[in-house]
Design a protein that fits this description.
The protein is built from 31 helices and 32 strands. By secondary structure, it is of the alpha/beta class. Bound molecules: ligand MGD (2 copies) and molybdenum atom (MO). This is Formate dehydrogenase.
């Protein structure tokens, strides 16, 4: 990481003066249209890019590689500004070839910004690190596979390897990847979910016996009330704006719960309604905005439950008695616990007046059908699992699950992160899954749980992880505690990155290092049996096929299934798994998946249906596969989320409008009104005044980790923002340096990315 503080953070190096002015327009309005035009222009993709958008999210086209929001099959044009950015970023005509690597040493490249690294374009051929010259030099695919195979086979235990997955990997590649890891002998399958929705998966599993939400888009369309918790919809799931605008148009209530009033929680222009865009005709997407204290969601939900129980005293029908008796466990205990919680405690922890919580409770009571959705604002906290379970508690009270228009609906991140879990990326696999895998694939999977993201990093430091394979993603910047993670990677004997673009994780590497370039989602994948499609699963459990259309960025690129097969064959010479035969025709992989994965019987036929198929989900039918066979109320104590002293602020690290996780497109954050600045911290006016800070002053931000260690980011600019006193906000991945490796949830093992305890002082 370049050490010099820069106002653009990890974004572009050239930047003008910074500015901060509130944004007054609707989300997805002309700013978005203009931005789309300029992105296409910048990537010199105007014509091809426009065509590409028409085939995106279409039955015979490719799935948008952006977020996991489901495709609306009723729309002829279902795309958004950020999806366009994402696709054009992948389709860029720029290339990083051997000439580039011969021009710069790794030490030289290390001084480049992250934007400049990715902006060089697409990787074109396999490269290997040459320590003598400090350059990456070309290597043939066969030699690269042989090198990886020999390093993996030289380990004294298969558990000395970790196989990371970023959530873009398609289902077929995912299945082969986990098969390879398990045949090799380890469940060390850390993934981006470990930092994202791990808490949601664990919560839903414990409460309703499934790791996923139960809603689909039709439920969103039928709900009378939609609660959106901890999601920045306009930037991170823009196509959700369509559902929210439709909801308010038909008179449903939409409530946003977020310490920040994000633009997507006020008014929007529906992303695909170009005519409205031209007429500036915006639609409201909100009936209520609740600025909860960071981490105060559980208290708010409990307050809403209290409102329900109070109403039930005079009208018992507000509770779905029949459902509660037939399908739930621990109801009485939950009711008693809610009764025993005082309004004083609830309002203090939620940071909200009782009247506001009562109003939210009233909206819930008035709705016959309620959907509650959530994202990282709920999950990346110490008590993320308890909060997600409290969402389910509230839904259960009125039977809001397993019927149309109702249910829990987590907003997943990467386009196939949910599919990765379905297809076996899980460091804590169930015995049932492994038994089936072993039976069908003729292997003996290890039964001991593997490492997740945090424990992988710790393992690198302890020397117990020697080989790291990154299947996509940008591990060093996505993970917490950047300096510590970087030092861990550098201790590895071998790091392998399968990527489309150059990024920081290629420069922070092990003693040996390989970069393997792969096809992107938009590119045509031709194997022996002809053109191949791959499948992905969206946030609402719909699985569909995606066909890349474009000529690959380089003839040397291989598909992700082919890369995995190459590594597997070189690593497991005795393997009876027909790795290469699978890759000749992905139908063959799907045939095996159909036998291993519940709900995938007839996989190859199911994906022929327009729009694909929904994975059957017992909880949606009110069959709860928990140990008791019932939906379980959780009885979590209300956490104390208020810092011990008034000096400490709770900092959340979030995305700007112009980035995709570690990929920064520009240093602007249009909807928050910021230009040319990423090294910033948003503070409440009172907190600024208490620290003697004026707008734009430089501050040093110091975090104290649970293990007592201290980290500082110097010279970030303080900006006034409407957020609850005692809280602060800034951008990932610049601020990951503040998150100590010890700071992860004891419930989900997720790093506390929305709850960093910091002190802020004016820089000297
Ligand atoms: N364009 C674009 N789209 C993306 C991504 C991207 O980087 N760029 N990333 C993708 C991925 S992997 C993911 S996981 C999702 C992430 O989608 P989001 O969860 O929207 O991501 P963040 O930017 O981290 O924003 C977190 C939101 O939660 C709020 N929040 C913070 N703390 C709390 C809290 O304690 N309570 C509540 N109720 N709210 C809180 C923040 O103010 C913010 O609005 O987006 C996906 N989509
Ligand atoms: N502080 C803080 N940290 C966070 C978060 C936060 O809110 N706060 N959010 C966390 C979350 S939710 C997530 S999901 C993680 C994201 O973590 P990752 O998924 O690891 O990171 P990305 O930035 O999405 O990965 C970008 C890289 O993926 C590669 N890539 C792009 N497309 C493809 C493809 O088709 N195939 C392959 N093989 N590679 C491709 C490119 O080389 C690109 O550089 O970050 C986490 N980190
Ligand atoms: Mo994510």
């Amino acid at each position: 990481m370049p050490n010099v503080p820069r106002q653009g953070g990890f974004g572009p190096a050239s930047e003008g003066a910074w500015s901060s002015t509130p944004y007054h327009h609707a989300a997805a309005s002309w700013g978005a249209a203009k931005s789309v035009g300029s992105i296409l222009f910048k990537q010199r993709e105007l014509v091809r890019g426009t065509h590409a958008m028409f085939v995106m999210n279409h039955p015979d086209g490719y799935d948008c590689p952006g977020c996991a929001w489901p495709d609306d099959t009723k729309l002829t044009l279902d795309f958004c500004e950020n999806g366009v950015k994402h696709v054009t970023w992948e389709m860029t005509p720029k290339r990083v070839g051997r000439d580039f690597f011969s021009q710069y040493t790794v030490a030289e490249l290390a001084d480049w910004t992250d934007f400049d690294l990715e902006n060089q374009g697409r990787l074109t051929e396999p490269m290997v690190y040459d320590a003598d010259s400090d350059h990456y030099v070309p290597i043939s695919w066969d030699d690269a596979f042989a090198l990886i195979g020999s390093e993996l086979r030289a380990l004294s235990s298969p558990h000395q390897a970790a196989f990371y997955t970023s959530g873009r990997l398609n289902n077929e590649a995912t299945f082969l990847y986990q098969l390879m890891a398990r045949e090799f002998g380890t469940n060390n399958l850390p993934d981006c979910s470990n930092m994202c929705h791990e808490a949601s998966g664990r919560a839903l599993q414990a409460s309703i016996g499934t790791g996923k939400g139960t809603c689909d888009l039709a439920d969103w369309e039928e709900a009378d009330a939609l609660f959106v918790m901890g999601v920045n919809a306009a930037s991170n799931a823009p196509r959700m704006l369509t559902a929210l605008a439709d909801a308010t148009r038909r008179g449903a209530q939409v409530v946003h719960i977020n310490p920040l009033v994000e633009i997507g929680s006020t008014k929007t222009i529906v992303p695909h309604e170009m005519v409205d865009m031209a007429l500036f005709k915006s639609t409201s997407v909100s009936d209520m905005n609740i600025q909860v204290r960071p981490g105060g969601d559980l208290a708010l939900l409990r307050g809403m439950a209290k409102v329900v129980f109070e109403a039930a005293e005079s009208d018992p029908t507000v509770l779905d008695q029949a459902f509660l008796v037939e399908h739930t466990a621990q109801f009485e205990a939950y009711r008693d616990m809610v009764a025993a919680t005082s309004w004083a405690e609830i309002t203090e922890q939620a940071g909200l007046p009782e009247s506001e919580i009562r109003r939210a409770g009233g909206i819930y009571l008035a709705a016959k059908r309620t959907v509650i959705s959530w994202c990282l604002g709920v999950t990346q906290h110490e008590h993320g699992v308890d909060s997600a379970r409290e969402i389910v508690n509230l839904l259960l009270l009125r039977g809001n699950i397993g019927r149309p228009g109702a249910g829990p609906s987590p907003v997943r991140g990467h386009s196939n992160v949910q599919g990765n879990r379905t297809c076996g990326i899980d460091h804590r696999p169930t015995a049932d899954f492994l038994d089936k895998l072993d039976e069908v694939c003729g292997i003996t999977s290890p039964r001991e749980h593997g490492l997740d993201t945090v424990t992988t990093i710790e393992g690198m430091h302890a020397g117990s992880v020697q080989v790291f394979v990154g299947m996509g993603g940008n591990f060093v910047l996505a993970a917490p505690d950047t300096a510590y993670t970087a030092a861990g990677l550098r201790k590895c004997a071998l790091t392998v990155q399968v990527s489309t673009k150059l990024n920081r994780s290629h420069l922070v590497h092990g003693r040996k290092a390989v970069i393997l370039p792969c096809l992107g989602r938009t590119e045509k994948d031709v194997q022996t049996a002809g053109t191949q499609g791959v499948t992905v699963e969206d946030a609402m459990s719909m699985v569909h096929i995606s066909y890349g259309k474009r000529r690959p960025a380089s003839p040397e690129l291989r598909s992700e299934p082919a890369v995995i097969a190459g590594i597997a064959a070189a690593t497991l010479p005795e393997s009876r798994t027909p790795w290469h035969w699978y890759v000749e025709d992905y139908d063959r992989i799907r045939e095996v998946m159909a036998k291993v994965l519940p709900g995938f019987t007839g996989f190859n036929q199911l994906i022929q249906q327009p729009g694909g198929f929904r994975i059957p989900q017992p909880a949606r039918e009110r069959v709860f596969q928990t140990p008791s066979g019932r939906a379980e109320f959780s009885l979590a104590p209300m956490p104390n989320v208020i810092p011990e002293d008034s000096e400490t602020l709770v900092l959340q690290t979030m995305r700007s409008h112009d980035q995709w996780n570690t990929t920064i497109y520009s240093s602007n954050d249009r909807y928050r009104g910021v230009k040319n600045l990423r090294e910033l911290i948003f503070l409440n006016a009172a907190d600024m005044a208490a620290r003697g800070l004026a707008e734009g002053d430089f501050v040093d931000i110091t975090s104290t980790s649970r293990d007592g260690s201290v980290r500082t980011l110097p010279r970030f600019r303080a900006l006034r923002y409407d957020l609850p006193p005692g809280s602060a906000a800034g951008y990932m991945p610049e601020m990951n340096a503040l998150i100590g490796i010890a700071d992860y949830s004891t419930q989900s093992d997720q790093p506390l990315m929305k709850n960093v305890q910091v002190r802020v002082r004016k820089s000297v």
